[in-house]
Amino acid sequence: MRAGLPDFRLGSVLATSFTGTLSERHGNAVERIPTPQRLVDWLAVNGLTVDSCTTAQLELARELRESIHAAATAAAVHDALPASAIQIINDCSIRGRAAAVLTPEGSRQWRLGSAAGVEDALSVIAADAISIIAGERDGKLALCASPTCRAAFFDTSQSRTRRWCDMNTCGNRQKKARFNANRRKDGTAARTGVN
Ligand SMILES: [Zn+2]
Predict the structure, then answer these.
(1) Model pTM?
(2) Sequence-ordered list of residues with C-beta below 8 angstroms from that of 10, at least 6 positions apart, any chain
């Protein structure tokens, strides 16, 4: 972790973890990859190690991020996918070089082209987004119930009824808000110290 910089929120789905690097889009937005180095850090944590990142590459990454967010949001509410978002996702998917490799333990890893660049890493993220938006994977795109968040997330729960992008942040906040509201309603109990 780097001092003074926002933490990463890590999920199990690459594409929506990536869109989560900008959180609270409808509130006080938090940019979690504010510098090129921070994008390098995020990619490393997600198994996509690159040597360096320029300001222009960070811009490109953010452009891809917002395109995935726009397309995933449209898919979640069954709207038409925005053409400009599709274009950017596809451009990023085509531009980079990466190959899936099998580990001895039987899991899939991504190997980026030699002299791995940010574009190679972004192609993996774009391909991940495509597989989710295309409905290829077991799960459902949904929007976070928090009005200041509304992040698109991939619900892989059995019942497909997950409400929040992240239980530890949005889910917890909502629970606390409900708890406080109940306490206020139940003023008598609070005054007599029953709570
Ligand atoms: Zn959320």
Answers:
(1) 0.88
(2) 17, 45, 46
